């Protein structure tokens, strides 16, 4: 299964911290402010509590600095506050401190230190930290590669319901890493994670149905699972769905392949700060012309969500070396089948044959509208890419702005 997706705990799985039983006072007021998106007020209310030594407030202030919510991005301040909470034994802060060392945020990248902090949280039974340690042993980061240790730690997290750990265990059983290859157990673990809405697991189940790995080959089942992941903005699922829907052997109906609308940004569960790598929202501050769009990371590659013709959202790679916006042929066919792209949108008169034999009027076409964050650009030239190609946001879109840049530190696209 050449495209099977794994989960990288130390690469961005951030724990959600539930701030305990609700009690009247500044802490509860801060939680309420956070929930309604008033981050500046939340920080203002949390800070005095943090300065008084409240570990949960210290963690929350640190997270806000780490993610630029209500305060400027500042990894130094983030780490200072997280360490205060971590030194008090607050597991969420210990885990997040480990993540910062693993990422090299505010400190030199140091897997050994990351492991120290992950262990402190894991010893308290914190599932995300247990999963992170399992991932480090599986990949050999900061420790010798040891599948046995990886399985032990991942099981601890999976037994607590961690969808990421369940997906990783499925991957290890699927590929025989440290265990005898067992498709049945792989599918069982994937289903546990998929039932929680975990996109990578949903995609992997789709892959198993496509290839008949442990289950009868079933394209419609594959499409059903791909759709679940694609509707969450999972790029591999979007590409796989386009490929499969373009395959006449799949015997699909257009409604089965349609993935419409923009998946809403993931927000906090109750009062918890959300995972910093998952948000898809864009911001444009009053009085400023620059929009900052948070990039998404998948497997070490950063993507930006793009809404096409106000109908379908796909994840694109920003590529200033591409002259046009580029869309693979299988995805173009899906856009046509769902009505997002019409025959009159194609430019020129020279026919172009797609990989499945379908003929379109031209290699180039016009996208009526592309929306990135709060910026809408009309009449953008795009080109058909090879079926194995990537979705690229090229110069035909980027040059429509006065300036653009990528903030590598904070992983955001800046459009002016």
Please give a structural write-up.
The chain has helices spanning 26-35, 39-51, 55-67, 75-87, 91-103, 111-122, 127-139, 147-159, 163-175, 183-194, 199-211, 219-230, 235-245, 254-257, 329-337, 395-398, and strands at residues 282-284, 291-294, 296-298, 301-308, 312-318, 325-328, 346-347, 352-353, 359-360, 364-372, 375-385, 392-393, 404-407, 412-415. Helices cover 43% and strands 16% of the residues. Strand 13 (404-407) and strand 14 form a beta hairpin. It is globular, with a radius of gyration of 23 Å. It has 416 residues and is of the alpha+beta class. The chain has 16 helices and 14 strands. The longest helix is centred in the first third of the chain and has 13 residues, at 39-51. The strands form three sheets. Strands 3, 4, 5, 6, 7, 10, 11 and 12 form an eight-stranded mixed beta sheet that branches. It folds into three domains: 1-157, Alpha Horseshoe (Serine Threonine Protein Phosphatase 5, Tetratricopeptide repeat), CATH 1.25.40; 161-258, Serine Threonine Protein Phosphatase 5, Tetratricopeptide repeat (Alpha Horseshoe); 303-415, Cathepsin D, subunit A, domain 1 (Beta Barrel), CATH 2.40.70.
What distinguishing features does this structure have?
3 domains; four-stranded antiparallel sheet; 16 helices; 416 residues; Cathepsin D, subunit A, domain 1; 14 strands
């Amino acid at each position: 299964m050449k495209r099977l997706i794994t989960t990288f705990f130390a690469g961005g799985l951030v724990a959600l911290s539930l701030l305990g039983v609700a009690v009247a006072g500044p802490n509860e007021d801060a939680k309420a402010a956070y929930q309604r998106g008033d981050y500046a007020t939340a920080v203002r209310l949390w800070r005095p509590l943090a300065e008084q030594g409240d570990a949960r407030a210290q963690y929350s202030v640190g997270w806000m600095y780490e993610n630029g919510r209500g305060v400027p991005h500042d990894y130094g301040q983030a780490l200072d506050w997280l360490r205060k909470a971590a030194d008090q034994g607050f597991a969420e802060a210990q885990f997040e401190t480990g993540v910062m060392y693993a990422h090299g945020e505010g400190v030199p990248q140091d897997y050994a230190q990351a492991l120290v902090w992950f262990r402190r949280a894991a010893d308290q039974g914190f599932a995300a930290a247990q999963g992170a340690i399992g991932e480090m042993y599986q990949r050999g980061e900061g420790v010798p590669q040891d599948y046995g240790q990886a399985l032990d730690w991942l099981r601890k997290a999976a037994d607590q319901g961690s969808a990421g750990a369940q997906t990783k265990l499925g991957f290890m059983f699927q590929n025989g890493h440290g265990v005898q290859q067992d498709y049945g157990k792989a599918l069982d673990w994937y289903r546990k994670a998929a039932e929680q809405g975990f996109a990578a697991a949903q995609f992997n189940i789709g892959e198993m149905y496509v290839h008949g790995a442990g289950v009868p080959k079933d394209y419609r089942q594959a499409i059903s699972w791909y759709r679940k992941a694609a509707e969450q903005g999972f790029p591999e699922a979007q590409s796989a769905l386009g490929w499969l829907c373009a395959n006449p052997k799949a015997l699909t109906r257009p409604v089965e392949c349609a993935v419409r609308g923009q998946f809403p940004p993931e927000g906090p569960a109750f009062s918890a700060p959300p995972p910093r790598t998952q948000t898809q929202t864009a911001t444009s501050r009053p009085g400023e012309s620059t929009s900052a769009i948070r990039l998404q990371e998948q497997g070490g590659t950063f993507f930006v969500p793009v809404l096409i013709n106000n109908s379908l959202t796909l994840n694109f790679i920003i590529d200033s070396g591409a002259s046009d916006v580029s869309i693979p042929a299988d995805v173009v066919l899906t856009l046509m089948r769902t009505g997002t792209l019409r025959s009159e949108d194609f430019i020129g008169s020279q026919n172009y044959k797609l990989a499945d034999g379908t003929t379109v009027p031209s290699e180039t076409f016009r996208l009526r509208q592309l929306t990135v964050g709060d910026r809408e650009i009309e009449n953008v030239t795009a080109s058909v890419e090879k079926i194995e190609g990537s979705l690229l946001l090229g110069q035909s879109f980027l040059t429509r702005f006065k300036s653009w840049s990528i903030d590598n530190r904070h992983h955001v696209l800046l459009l002016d």
